[in-house]
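Case study: Carboxypeptidase Q.
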Amino acid sequence: MKLSRTLLLVFVISAILQFQAQTDEAVIKDIYKTSLTNGNSYQWLDYLSNQIGGRLSGSYNAELAVNYTKTELEKLGLTKVWLQPVMVPKWVRGAKEYAYIESSEGKTTTVNICALGGSVATPGIGVKAEVVEVKSFEELATLGEANIKGKIVFYNRPMQADLIQTFQAYGGCVNQRYKGAVEAAKYGATGVIVRSMNLRLDDLPHTGSMTYEDLPNDKRIPSAAISTNDAELLSSMLKLDTGAKFYFRQHCKQLKDVQSYNVIGEIKGSEYPDEIITVGGHLDSWDLGDGSHDDGAGVVQSMEVLRLFKVLNITPKRTIRVVLFMNEENGLRGGKKYAEEAKTKGENHIFALESDAGGFTPRGFSFDCNEANFNQVLSWKPLFKPYLIHYFEKGGSGADVGPLKSETNVLAGLRPDSQRYFDHHHASNDTFDAVNKRELELGAATMTALVYLYDTYGVNPIPNPSTLKD
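Here is what the predicted structure looks like once written out:
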């Protein structure tokens, strides 16, 4: 009799698990179907990109984007929509930059550059000097002040083309853009030119953030990016003539901080309202294009997660919150502010998902979590197999959700196919026409499916002992 009861219990548990698995499969199928046949992400992105455009922090366009996305979230009938004030830097590019290489007196070749975000301007007449080409800070230090003072430093370390993970290639050379001016100023350089962070050869300069750290204002030198084609040209010309000169002029300016906002909306959880699941992207962008891939795609995909919950009548157990972060590109003020207020309020963020890698075909997710939670994620892989989502790896999440990290929660980042991402990243061709509607909608569905699973099952609260030791 005891054995029969045990067998019956096993049978019941097995049947429940099988039924739940079938339910999850059906819900996820509906999520993908609805996103692909009745989605709204592409329509939102069209307006954000073509009617508003580039959304540099502190700009009028950024303000328009805040108002637009708040209004659209309010239309969804969420439990609550609000703005979270945050002070952000205001940097303006000014008139278009101009540059040329001078191979001999009066013989010049015009090249494509753009000021790096946060850079100071050149003097009104511009800067012209001989050029020192380097590929690392170590090489810079070896040359020393005697070989650098009064010259323009040209950082020409390309992204490593044989790395399949293109973000790894980006990470391997972006320090020359971010800290190049600080390092060059130590040796008396008069300016900095940096090879664009781009894996292909083209004529488009790619901007991005840079820092002066605590360098006094009178020691700060102008810093600009040069297109990859023109970086190759400059390097070739320097090999033929080390006395060739470079001229550039830019009119950018750093103004006082201004107030902006994170845009937030939520559906209150029906069973565990104090357990918060956050999904988001950053609302700001650079100013050269319209920021469709970086990060308009992440913004509208995150909005679509909540819309799909509403359209499919999925009543979440936990509170699902969308956060459209401001100022990821040149300060991360929005992400830090959100985490600061969450901590002050004692909010329990069990899971946070970010989309900030473009609107290309989704491949999966990267996770920042303990082993127990990662094993839970791996158990869900079969549910994603029909949609060709196969990448489930530990290794980071996203810049804006990163400040929410705790010992027990899970942070994740959507990982689309990134092979073409850096063709557009921070450049003038980061535009709406570069985004494929179906790929964007697949990404939104993939995010929604993962949020649905975390809402259904929660997270494993047991921290990894090795994490605690750290």
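For the exam, be able to explain this: Residues 464-470 have pLDDT under 50 and may be disordered.
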